[in-house]
Structures are given as structure tokens and as C-alpha cells.
Amino acid sequence: MSGAALPLVQMTGISKEFPGVRALSGVHLTVERGEVHVLFGENGAGKSTLISILSGVYRPSAGSISIDGEEVHFHSVHDATDAGIGTVFQEFSLVPTLTVFENLYLGRELKRGPFIDRRAMVAGARKLFEDLDFDIDVHRPASSLSRAQQQMVEIAKAFLSNARVLILDEPTASLTERETEKLFSFIAKASAAGVGIIYISHRIHEFEKIADRISVLRDGRLIATVPAKGISENKLIELMTGRSIDMIYPKIDRQPDGPAVMTLRGIHTAGVHGVDLEVRAGEVLGVAGLVGSGKSRIWRGALGLQPITAGTVSLKSRDVTHQPTGHLLRSGVFFLPSDRKSDGLQMTATARENIELSLLDRPDVVGRMGIVSSRRSRSLTDSIGEKVGVAKGAMDRAVSKLSGGNQQKVLFGKGFGEPRDVYILDEPTVGVDMSTRVALYQLIKEIAEAGKAVVVISSDLAEVMNLAHRLVVFAKGRISAELSNAEICEETVLKYFFAQTEGSA
Amino acid sequence: MSIQTTSVVEETSAPRRSNVLFSAITYVFLRVGVLPFFLVATLVAFALISREFLALQNLTNVARQSVYLILVSIGQMLALVTGGFDLSVGTAIALTSVVSAIAMVALTPVLPGMVWLVVALGICAGLGAGLVVGGFNGIGVAQFGVSPFIMTLGVQSVGAGVALFLTGGVPVSGMPYQFGDVLGFGRIFDIPIPVAVAVVASVAVWILMNRTRLGKHIHAVGGNLKAAHLSGVNTKRVLFITYVLCALLASIAGLLLTARVGSGETNLGGKIALESIAACVIAGVSLRGGIGRVENVVLGAFFITLLQNGMNIAQIGSYMQMVLLGSLLVLAVILDQLRYRLLIGDR
Q1: Is B214 on the interface with A (CB under 8 A)?
Q2: Which CATH number applies to A9-94+145-246?
Q3: Does ipTM surpass 0.90 in this model?
């Protein structure tokens, strides 16, 4: 072979500019044959952009890519697939109404004459799953698969086109421990066969098991590429954030023995099977768990966003079970949804208009006949904007034009329109840069220290662990552990992620 | 995408003149939409074709003709801003016309000598018919979550059927002439009453949309339904009121039209659903909801009427006019897509 000494993938000086944003600047990345190369960095650091470039979704503004020493220019995902690059994105691309094998062969159906060769596709799919050691019925519709199974189908899809490079974007985010083990053994097998693997993950403890090298990205730049063996967790976090750990998370004073403001008793709702919880004033309650563990749905149930089949919700010792969401929100609950684009903000409206929406129940803003006082609204939205740190000039711009960090600040701002007692924050810092994070944590500190109850639901383990005074861990729709300040550490928490709750075998 | 980069990235070197012009055009396009360009093109084109087109007499005439479409369009805008639309505005007009006419004809012998009471009751009956149409739309869309397309399409057929059934397809005549004298041809402070009604309605809807809580809720529901719900907005109530208001405005237009033609007719609102949606879209109301300004919609409706007037003067046949209007609507929607992409940023 001519290029035996050349790396399998060589990305040189990759830059990517979006209108007004520089997402990547001058990033170098190499992947050797059989190497597992971890990409590590915060949301927005440029990991996704980088792999999107390698997988043909975007074209780089500058820089070059070589596969096996040969320069390539991908114009589409298709080009990249043809060059042997298989990508499993975080957002799956399965068609829910099609079966597993139909999904697998979507766009590259096997044919016999003018017709689709169903039998060959079924056989091919079975053989592939056998090779990968995945146990899936290929006739099931994709909609009936668990997230883990869907992921396996996605991985299989990548392999169907004989991938030489496999890109996995947070593959373990929704997998159980056993499924994760299976995935790891599969990764080991693939790398032994010479496949280069790019692996994006936030779970530092996974790296030691599988990774050869780790590349850390921050603000669109490559900070360092380090060998995975022997690097400490704190060092990695410092590389990722550019600051030491204790500068990120503030010390939040806890109000001792605050009264219970919100009480959930025996809640059953879709994905939640009997949960008791108390939210106390002056305390940050952390809620951790895997995707689908019920950590988020319990609150959606409590807020009337999905029906509760059993149990009671009380707010300030008043029974509010089955009350409409609007009623709860007007009775002192603030809910910050996890997806600001789909659930949180009016994207085409301005920051001011978004915040204003939370002021429209105030008698000093809305007068008789529902007429809104522009002047009052303006001064209030200005002061809220200042409090959450949205620049004056950004207040009258469409939210869609603001950075993720500013969008999230606007979303937080909606919580300060009226006095609230309970702040339920679902993924409060998802997809924002580090300085915004620090600012938002400061806001959370202020809220809690003002004697309000704060619930932080987060997939970012470090975040919940460092903010929470009390941490509940969800697994399979139940609380698998309740840990107080001193007991909170990553290993314990992770153990409870997969814990069998009492009562089940 | 090349348009975007030139407009967003600020030039540090001395900008060339063509660039200034280009960014000015982009700016107007993003702020207002396609309407200014269409309006200028129409005025120039028809002014070249015909001298009488730009005459004051003709333009005031167009303004007077446009009030019906203006009324329907500002109602249509409400529905569009919530992210839906109302295909049944024509039916609301037809039912209003037929019901008010039948009521007046039937009441005249019952209440002899009380002609103004008869007219008032007839107006109420007509508006009531409009409210029923809007109520059905509102319940279907808000309470049962039927897509606005299907709901209003269905109601459109039901209403048209009822109107034809009530009249047997024959115009209802014999209304008190005072009705037509006032609502059709009357003047107040020397302003034609239909014009006055349209002005009052436009101002009222402007205040509603820009100065009241309900208006902000309507924007919020269309901008992002889930976010509005999670902000404590009673989204079902907002949607219901929107469809009722939309039908009510169409109903008012129906009364004015009935007064103008002097009889209750089932075919008064024939093409108005298409025309009102076209007026809104051309005026920059986004089909995705959340965006729309009353003043632009009024201008949009005026533009559509102007265009029809110009085409009449240019002796373009009515069949060809249909072709042009439909094409214009599609073109406006394509440009709206482009505008939305530029507004929301590339994704």
C-alpha cells in the first residue's frame, strides 16, 4: 500500500464561518487506522461543526481533508459515505413508519430487475446485525424501537456502506450500562479491524476505557490533542473550559429547613411510576438521570403538560393536581423548558417581546380593556434584560439572531417578570458557552439565596452535582437515590443511573 | 446564501454605491417584505399603459372598492398570525348576506313602520351568522385541534351549502332601501360609510394587535404555540377568539357588500379567501405565524384591488386575471420563504 504511513483521516487548518459567527478556526485533526479518537468540548465548542464537515453536511470555509493521503472535497453526505465515512448523528434519521431493514437500505435499495429485492435486503440486514452482535428483529417498525436499538440501527446503517471511518456523536447519551458495554466491545472490534473511530462524548470516565487520543475543542479552536492514558479528569475540564473548576460553579448558600413549596406524592404519569418529592424553599434540588428515566417527565406531569394518572401535586399546601398549566404558572411556578427553540422562545419575535410575554398578567402593565402600557413594559423589560445580562442593543433584535447564550438569558428573563416561588429549570445551560454558563449559575445562586425553591434538571452531571444541595437520581421512572450534599460524587450518581429500584427483581 | 453574507457582514472599507442600494433593498425586503416592490412595479407598469390609471378619480375609486377586501384581509391576518388561516371567509360573507337579507325581508311586514329596527335586527342576524361560522372554526381548531386548513375548508362547504339551501340559489331581494342607502352609499363627515367602517376596523385591529394583551398573545401563539403555552397563555381561548374575530370582520364586509348590491347573494365572497390570503402574504404576513402588521395588510389589500383595477383598464380579461393573481400569490409565498430564511438565520 502506498500510503501506509499516512493517517487515515487528516483534517488540516479547517475553518468554518457562518454569517456573523466563526464556528471553527484552523483546526487540525488526524485519525489513525484502528484509533479511537475522542472529541471533547462544551456545547458550541465546534465539535458538531467539525464532524459535520467531515461527514459532508457542511463545506469548510478553509482547510483541507485527506482520506488515506488523498485530498477529498465532499459536496454532500453522500460523497462522504462513498469515501467510507459513516456518521451516527445525535439526532437519528430513521423513518418511524418503515421497518428496520427498510430503514437500513433506504436510498440504496437492492433491486432485482425493476423491483426491490426484499428477500436480499432482509438477509443482508440479518447478516449485518449478526456480525455486529446486535439482537434486533429486522421486521419491526423503527417507531417501536427503544432509543438504544435505534442507535444500533443507525450504527448498522453506517456499516452497511463499508465505513472506514465511523463517527459517533454522543452514542452513550441514552444507553443503559449493559448497552454501553456492548457498544464498547463493538467499538473495540471495529478498531481492531482497522476502522478509525471519532467519538464525541461528555462522559470523561468512558475515555480511559476506549480512547487512544483525546482532542479538546474550545470556542472553535483546537486546544490540545492528548493521549487518553493518564490524563486527569480535572485537567480535561480545565482544557475544555479554560478555567479551573471552582471558578465555574458558585458556592450557593442553603437556607436551612426551608418549608416545602411544592410537594409531589405518588405521581404516576407516562414514563413515571410512583414518585414522591418535595421541593423546598431556599434550596437547589438537582435532578439527574438518563434520557427516558422520567427525570423530566415528572415535572411535565406536575405542571399539567402531560396527564397524571395517579398521585397529587400541591403548591404552597394547596392541591393543584390536574390544574391547567397556565394556572400553575400564574400561581408562582416558573418552568424553563429544555429546548428553547421548540418550546421556549418566539424565535422571530424580539428579545423584548419574549420577555414582555411574562409581564402580561401584571396589573401595572396591563390596564383596563387589556391595554398594555408600552412605557411600563419597556422599563420593566429593560431592567430584566439588565438583570440577566442581555445587552441593551440585543433587546430589540429577533431572538433567532442572538447567540445561544443570549437566547438562554432571554429565556431566564421570562422568569423574572413576576415574583415566583418555584423555579423548575430543565437543562438550564444546554448549548451555551462557558461565560454564559457562569452568568446563569450566578442567577441560580441569586434565586436560591433569595429564598426561592430551585429545581435543576440536567444531563450535565457536573452541573447538577456542583449546584445541588440535594440530588435525586431517576432510573426507569422512579427515584433510585436521594443524595445530600456530602454524598454527591460522580461514581455514586452513575451507579444509581442504572440501579434497579426496590421492588423490581 | 450569498445574499445573506453581503447583508449581514458589515463592510469596513468604503462601500460601493451598488452595495448601498443592494443593502437598502435587502433591508426593506426584510422589514416589510415584497409589497413595496410589487406596488412600485404595478404603479409604473399601469401608468405606462394608461393615463387614466394614476388619475385621482381612479385612485379614490380603487380605495373605495378595496374596503371589502381590507376588512376581510385584516381578519385573515389574525388567523395567519396565529399560524393558521381561514378559507371560510367567503362563506361568512355569503351567509351574512343571505341571513341578513332574509331577516329584513321577513321582519318588514311584522314590524311595519319600524324600518330602522328592521335594519338593525337584520344587521344583528347577519353578524350572528358570521359569529356562528367563526365559532365553528374556533371550536374545531382550538378545542379539537383540527388543522385550520381542513376545518375552515369544511366549514366553507357547510356554510356555502346552507346559504344555497336557504335561498334556493336565488338572490334575496326586497330589503328596505334605507339599508342600502346608509351602508352602501351613505356618507359620514363626507366620507363614504364603507370607507369609514374599514378605517375604524383597521384602527381597532391595529390597537388590538399592538397595544393589548390579547394581541400579544395572538402573536405569541403563532410565534411558538408550545412556548406560549409554557408562558401561561391560554392558547385555546386565543385561537378561538381569533377565528371568531376573523369571521366577524368578514361578516361586516358581507353586510357592506349586501348593502352595496341591494340583495342577499350567495356568491358575494367567491374569490375572497384567495385574495385576502394573497393580500396578507404580499404584505409580509408570514404563513408560519407570529409575523404580520395591520398597516401593511391594509396596503396589501389596496394593492390587490389596484392590480385588478389596472388589469381592467389594460383590458386584461378576467380569466387571465385569475392566472395572474394565483401566480402572484405563489411568487409572494416563495419570496416569503426566502425572507423567513434570512430572518431566522441559516439552519
Answers
A1: yes
A2: 3.40.50.300
A3: no
